[in-house]
Every structure is written in C-alpha cells, then in structure tokens.
Design goal:
The structure holds 2 protein chains of 2 kinds. By secondary structure, chain A is α/β, with parallel strands linked by helices. In chain A, about 40% of the residues lie in helices and about 20% in strands. Chain A has helices at about 15-25, 35-45, 65-75, 85-95, 110-125, 165-175, 185-190, 200-210, and strands at about 5-10, 30-35, 50-55, 80, 100-105, 135-140, 145, 150-155, 160, 225, 230-235, 235-240. Chain B has helices at about 10-60, 65-75, 95-105, 155-190, 210-240, 245-255, 260-285, 295-310, 330-345, 400-410, and strands at about 80-85, 110-115, 130-135, 140, 295, 315-320, 325-330, 350-355, 360-365, 415-420, 425-435. In chain B, strand 8 (about 350-355) and strand 9 form a beta hairpin. The longest helix of chain B has about 55 residues, at about 10-60. Classes of the chains: A alpha/beta, B alpha+beta. The interface of A and B includes residues 156 and 157 of A.
C-alpha cells in the first residue's frame, strides 16, 4: 500500500471532517476535507486525489449530482457515504457511478478496508480495461447479480440469496472472469491481507458459493478448481444497466 | 332459520322467482279462461250450423232412409235421436241466451231447448239438447257433443314455468353480480387493508349507496395511512438524527490509545447503533414496499446459516428442503429468519433449522435447547418493545422488536409466527408461510 495515497473527503459536518482527516492520516493516508461541492471543485483544480469520499446529503449540490458530474469528466474512484441507508438510495448511488457506498454510522475500520479495496481495484486493472461500474452483472447464461441490492437471481426471476461472504467472493470472481486466482490473491481482494497458510476459509466459501450457483462440487463446471493454483470462474461477464 | 339462504344471490333469486311465479300463474289462469271462452263460442256456432244442416238433410229424406243417416251421424260423433214429441221439460237457461240461440238457429222451423245429460268433458253451463221439429212433425234431438279440451294444460304450464324459472335465474345472476359488485369490492379492500395501507383507493362509482360507502372507506384509509405515517416519521427521524453523533463517536473512539477502553466503547456504540437500526427496520416493515419475487428458500436458509457461522462461529444445521421457490419479499424474509436464528443462537444451544414444505404452506422451524419462554409470556413476546425479565434479558441487547418484526413480516405475507416450548426443553419458533397466497406477484 502506497503511503502517499491522497484522499479527499466531502462532508458538511465539521466534526466528522476533522475526525476523518485525523483517522485517515493516522492510518497512513494523506487526507484533506472540504464542506461542499463548490469547495470540492476548487480543490480539484489544484490537486488530484486517488479517491473521493463523498457524503450523499450536502448543502447546495447534493452528493449524487456531484458524483455524476465527477464521473462525466474523470476516472476518480468515489466512495459514497449515506445516512439514509434506504435501498433506493443505494441503488441510485451506484447508478450515479459510485464505486462503493457505506451507511452512516459506519465502522471506521470498515471505511479503511473499503478505501483500500477500491484503490487496489483501480490499480489492478489498466484504466481503459476497467469495467464501467454497472448495476447488473450477467454471467453463465442464467445468472444475474444486482450489485445495488446485492441479490443474485436467475433469468427466470428466482432469487438466490447469498451470505455476505458469498457475495464478496462472487464479486471478486466476477471482477476477474476466466482468470485463475490463488488463495492469497482472493484473500487479498477480500480482506486486503496475506492469507494465513492454514486458513481454509476460502475453500469453505468457494464450496458454499458453488452450492448457491448449483455447481456440482465434485465436478464443477462454473467455479472450477485449478489443481495447485487456485480457482477460476469459467464464464464471461456482461455488465448491463438493465436486468434483462 | 336455516331455510333462509345465506348468499344475496340466493335470496334475491328466491324473491324474484317467487314473485314471478305468482304473476305467471295468475296470468296463465286469465289467459286460459279467455281462450276457453272464445273456443266455446266458436264451438257453439259450429254446433248450431250443424244442427240446422242436419235438420234440413233429414227433412229431404224419407222416414225409411233416416235410420241409415242417423247411424252414419252417430258414427261421426253426432248423436241424433228421433222422437214423436219434444221433451216435456225446458232447459233452464236465462231468457236472453235462449232467445239468442233461437235467433242463431233461424225461424224456419220449431225449436225446443231441452235439458240434457252432461256429456263427458262438455262445455260449462247447463247442458242443453237442441230439438228441431221436422217437416213430417217428428222431432230430432241433438244431444250436446263432447267438447275438445283447449289443450293439455298442466303440460303446457310445466314448460312455461320451466322457461320462466330459467330466465329468472339468468337475470338474477346478472342482476346480483351487477348490484353486489361494489359490496364485494369493499369487502376485498377492507380485507387487504392491513397488508397494504397505501393500496389504490376504491373506485367511487356504481349506485349512490355504493358510492358513499366507497368514499367513506377511502377517507378512512387516508386517515389511517396519515396517522401511521406521522408516527413512523417521528420515530424514524429520531433514529436518523442519532446517526451523525454516532458516526462522530465511532471515529473519536478509534482515536483513543487505550485498547481496552476503545473495545468497550465500540461495543457500546454498536449496541446503540443496533437499537436504532432495529427500530428503523421495524418501521420500514410497517411501510414495506419490497416486491414479491420467487425465492430459493434452501439458499436463503443456507446463506443465513453461513452468515451466522462467519460472524458468531456457531454451526447451525438445516434439515429438510423446500420443494419449489416461494413468492416472498427476499430482504424482509431474510431479516425475519435472521432474527429467529439470532435469538436461538443468543439464548439457546444446539440450534437447528427444519424446513417442512407442503402444497399449502412452507414451515420454517428454528429449534433450540435453551430455557424457552414461560408459557404465560409466549403471547406477549410478539408485541413490540416486550422483553423477558430474567433469562432472556436486556444484558444480551435488543429493544424487544425482533419477534415483532418477524410477526409483521409473516403477516405481510399472509403467514404467521408460532412460538412453542419444546417438551424436551428449549423453544421452537415456526414461521408459517402459505403457499396458496392471495397476494400476487408484482
């Protein structure tokens, strides 16, 4: 993790601004904070951060509009903060192009993990190859993952609920389709740490995910085991803004 | 009282058929009489003409030939007898009728109207035999012929009544459908109100009484929705507003250097946060707008059990499986089941989930081997903000909304939550969801 990563925080609460700057600085980031959209644009004229943490409820131009405007002119990753937490806001947030979102009150550690995860993702793929953030990921003919509601469903409409771990693991594979990922890489994408050599958690999660995807564990066709290397999601992924 | 039919259709049909049958019978009797009258008149004219013709014919014959003619006439159903004198008695007829009869017969010869034995099925009125004096002074006596019936009237009446009843049934079916539709709509609207306070208002049309009822119902629905909305808003505003100070506190705590203190304060904050979230969950449940979609129930249960294992390190087994996807609100159902399993893990041991599927209902049993709930408190536990003192107490966190949320979510789906203490100890919470649900997929 580069220690010079620069984060810009946009939040109208003065206390939260200064607390976030303190917290991120303590954890090895360079952080600045502005109270609203106007100040954000002024700040962006002079500097370029690696990531913007954007509050949804802002005086003047609201966070969603700012996010859309940012998307229109740059590739800057955006993490949305929302105090609402209603599903509708999450959906709209993601459709406006945010890379991720957190609901207030969030755990500061969770914020740190999400920031690191977004930065890692934006570095792991060349800019022009990075998939456009889209709401629906279609794969393996019959499956659709709604990244806003975090719901996996089949073409025929049947919803297949996922646990938190299963969802995150599926996202990792969908971000790297047809690529063999070893356990270290998967752990790194999931939690941002090196895998414990005795940690079999990944294997457990993979076998659970296979069950959800109705993939036969003895002879998996979709989430395949590559002996001695790791796992691969053997399908292409299509990103769409509609679920059909 | 059991003789009175229950449905409006049956009652209305009974009234209509009763009234119409009575009217039919009366009019049938009137028509029948009228018809008989005119038939009798035609009959009489025919008879008189025949009497005149036969008398003239007999006049032209020699007395020796008459016997042959009389035999032929008798064979043709016109009984004529010859006698030397007219009968001694005169028929008892009103004078004007007798005059009219004589006028119709003509003045060409002597006529005598005598009483006759009533022939079988003869015309009504006193039976009259007509006696005519022939040229040679003999009298020919014409007894009244049997009369043809105007028709087999019980048979005709049966057909008539049958078609009438059929027509009335059809008409009343349509009429009842038409007039009771507003009533039916009202009943349906009232029944579905608890599930959806924001349902579309009733159409205010139809007859005036139906219109007024629909208007009153719509106003009541609006008032109810407004009331609940205001309460919900107040509570949820409070929960929302707590979020900014909670966010600040969580950040401040992270800046503390004392590890023990930080961990304890984080736990406190998490509990406070959980209270606000649960309250918001509860309020959101009241105004649930998630769409019904078919859900893979096995995956739902397994994914929740995976979450439980990942966060609590507790392994919970599942027995049985669902035979088909169940139309449900996926997020809400997840929350309901999660609450039940969380409770079981928190207050009991050896937690198990059992699935019991049938064509009529899907039952999700969450079993534990804890202390259960005292029988007296079982009912109360489903009410909001109720907690058990003692074993399942405040120390373990919670505002007493968990089971209420489950109950509401089940009710929204037309199902219910059942709590039973197991004979071997522990609690069995059953989420029963109907498979033949009246709610439709949206």
């Amino acid at each position: 993790m580069s220690t010079t990563d620069h984060i810009l925080i946009v939040d109208d609460d003065r206390e939260i601004r200064s607390l976030l700057v303190d917290y991120l600085t303590r954890n090895g980031f360079q952080a600045d904070a502005v109270p609203d959209g106007r100040a954000m644009w002024q700040w962006l004229e002079r500097q370029t951060p690696q990531l913007i943490v954007l509050d949804l409820m802002l005086p003047g131009t609201d966070g969603l509009t700012l996010c859309r405007d940012l998307r229109a002119q740059s590739e800057l990753p955006v993490l949305m903060l929302t105090a609402l937490g209603e599903e509708a806001d999450r959906i709209v947030g993601l459709e406006m192009g945010a890379d991720d979102y957190l609901v207030k009150p969030f755990s500061p550690r969770e914020l740190l993990a999400r920031i690191k995860s977004i930065l890692r993702r934006s570095r792991s793929l060349p800019r022009n190859l990075r998939p456009e953030p889209a709401r629906y990921l279609h794969f393996a003919e019959i499956w659709v993952l709604d990244t806003a509601t975090r719901e996996l469903s089949k073409r025929d409409g049947v919803v297949t609920p996922l646990s938190g771990g299963e969802y995150r693991l599926l996202r990792v594979f969908l971000d790297h389709p047809n690529r063999v990922l070893n356990r270290d890489q998967i752990m790194d994408f999931l939690y941002g740490r090196e895998a414990d050599p005795f940690d079999r958690a990944i294997d457990v999660q993979v076998s659970r995910l296979r069950q959800r995807l109705k993939d036969d564990g003895r002879d998996p066709q979709l989430l395949k085991t590559v002996r001695g290397e790791g796992y691969v999601l053997a399908t292409t992924v299509e990103t769409r803004d509609r679920c059909d | 009282m059991r003789l009175i039919p229950q449905s409006l259709f049956a009652r209305l049909t009974l009234i209509l058929i009763g009234g119409l049958l009575l009217a039919q019978l009366i009019s049938f009797a009137l028509i029948h009489r009228e018809r008989g009258e005119s038939q009798r008149h035609a009959h009489l004219q025919q008879r008189l003409a025949r009497v005149v013709a036969v008398a003239e014919h007999l006049d032209r014959q020699r007395p020796a030939d008459r016997t042959h003619s009389l035999a032929l006439l008798a064979a043709a159903g016109i009984p004529v007898t010859l006698q030397p004198m007219h009968s001694a008695n005169q028929a008892l007829l009103p004078e004007f009728i007798a005059d009219e009869l004589r006028a119709s017969l003509g003045a060409s010869r002597q006529w005598w109207l005598a009483p006759a034995d009533r022939p079988e099925r003869g015309p009504p009125g006193p039976p009259v035999a007509i006696e005519a004096q022939l040229r040679d002074g003999q009298w020919a006596r014409f007894t009244p012929p049997p009369m043809h019936s105007p028709g087999d009237w019980p048979e005709r009446l049966r057909i008539h009544l049958f078609t009438t009843v059929l027509a009335v049934l059809l008409v009343s079916l349509l009429a009842v459908r038409w007039t009771t539709r507003p009533l039916k709509q009202l009943a349906e609207a009232a029944a579905s109100l608890p599930q959806d306070l924001n349902r579309a208002p009733l159409p205010e049309d139809g007859p005036r009484e139906a219109r007024q009822a629909a208007q009153a119902f719509n106003q009541m629905q609006q008032a109810l929705a407004r009331l609940i909305n205001e309460r919900t808003k107040a509570l949820s505003a409070m929960s929302h507003d707590l979020r900014t100070p909670l966010t600040r506190l969580r950040l401040r705590v992270e800046l503390l250097d004392d590890d023990t203190l930080r961990q304890k304060m984080t736990a406190d904050l998490q509990e406070m946060q959980q209270l606000t979230e649960t309250t918001l969950d509860y309020l959101r449940g009241l105004s649930n707008n998630e769409a019904l979609r078919p859900v893979d129930i096995d995956s739902l249960v397994d994914s929740i059990l995976a979450d439980v294992q990942d966060s609590h390190g507790v392994t919970v087994g599942r027995q049985g499986h669902a035979t088909a996807p169940l139309p449900a609100r996926p997020q809400a159902l997840r929350r309901a089941l999660m609450n039940l399993i969380d409770n079981a893990v928190k207050y009991g041991t050896q937690v198990q989930v059992q699935l019991d599927d049938s064509p009529t209902a899907l039952r999700l049993h969450v079993l534990d081997r804890g202390t259960g709930i005292p029988e007296a408190d079982l009912e109360r536990m489903l009410e909001p903000f109720q907690r058990l003192e003692g074993s399942r107490n405040r120390d373990s966190g919670g505002v007493g909304l968990g089971l209420t949320i489950v109950r509401d979510i089940a009710a929204l789906q037309g199902g219910r939550l059942l709590l039973v203490n197991r004979p071997e100890g522990g609690l069995q919470a059953t989420l029963e969801l109907p498979r033949t649900t009246t709610t439709t997929l949206t």
